[in-house]
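Progress note, project year one: complex with flavin mononucleotide.
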Amino acid sequence: MSKLRYLTSGESHGQGLTVIVEGIPADLNISENYIEHHMARRQKGYGSGGRMKIEKDKALIKSGVRHGKTLGSPIALWIENKDFENWNEAMSIEEVPDDVDKKVFTKVVPGHADFPGALKYNQTDLRNILERASARETASRVAAGSIARKFLEFFGISIHSRVISIGSESSQKLNYENIDWEFIESSEVRANDLESEVKFKKEIDLAKSQRTTVGGIFQIITYGVPVGLGSHVHWDRKLDGQIGQSILSINAVKGVEIGNGFENTTKKGKDVHDVIIPDKNNVKNFKHISNHAGGIEGGMTNGEPIIVNVAIKPIATMTKPLPSVDINTGEIVEAAYNRSDICQVSRACPIGESMIALTLANSFLEKFGGDSMLEIQTNYTSFIKTHKNFGSK
Ligand SMILES: Cc1cc2nc3c(=O)[nH]c(=O)nc-3n(C[C@H](O)[C@H](O)[C@H](O)COP(=O)(O)O)c2cc1C
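Model obtained:
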């Protein structure tokens, strides 16, 4: 069983989202403001649709925290959907009279969840599928992920992300030293540099003018990770496998790469593997001179930054819809158009960071587990000390 668990609930236009996070130890400092900061990062982005102008997400902490510190008990969060005031009849929990506009929707959107969802759940109103398949749910993951991130920060672990391509445009000067995270944070497309930003925005503008959508690739980099999270001993304990699952569960994500996974296939082994050298200044007594592996070898962290690249497809809902079918009549129709984003790649970045935070916090708790921050810190410190047994005899 996972050490850190969380459940999310809520529909896109329902009253709101509920999250319960279980497994966070006692005495972690956490505040609603901290969570709000990261939730706001999910909401900004060039190419976002109208919904983000309506919602300003705030997760209210309802339990599990007292006087700014966690109690070790489950933490319940509540995120209100401001848009619900426009949907209280269409999304009513109670039955409504027949003459009420239920915002029924029957025209399948190719690439969305509605077609398989309708057949699987036996639903003739596609809204019953779309409401949960919508990426609104990811607000819950960012809320839960913020608590995991706060936990990791205590141990000096930080998680960042940047967009490395949009459509056919990619960053030409991707650096791994001295990355300007402040610039990236302030960039509307989370670009690495000004040149990339200009190209990415043009690509989004072009998609908009063609009444279509555009996807891309973003990169998540995690610094400060100790050696030994995950394990080589069993398939479901391998950290790369867990990262793959958590990242692929994000809406519209269709590919995950750890380090230079794909590029490495074009090179010879001598140019791919990361040579290890002694380094007395390093807490591990050793270091890798490169990081093509992206910080994970044998399903375990090797102490180098974890690098994860994420491929996200263009959004399925388009202002110029594709030909499709009506799920009830079987007629050929145009797919439905609901208010939608043109490009969601930069908005997906904080979601990816959150999934990494939840996955790593779980691994961290498995390795250094305890019920209070002090107990975990003691376990962590004594493990780090054992590194000095290696390479110094
Ligand atoms: C941040 C974000 C925003 C999204 N916004 C939309 C949107 O506005 N319209 C849409 O059709 N899909 C959007 N999606 C993608 C759909 O939720 C997703 O494509 C759909 O649930 C089908 O699942 P799949 O693409 O993972 O197979 C968004 C995804 C993310 C990560």
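The radius of gyration is 22 Å.
The first strand starts at residue 5 and ends at 9.
No further modelling is planned for this target in the current period.
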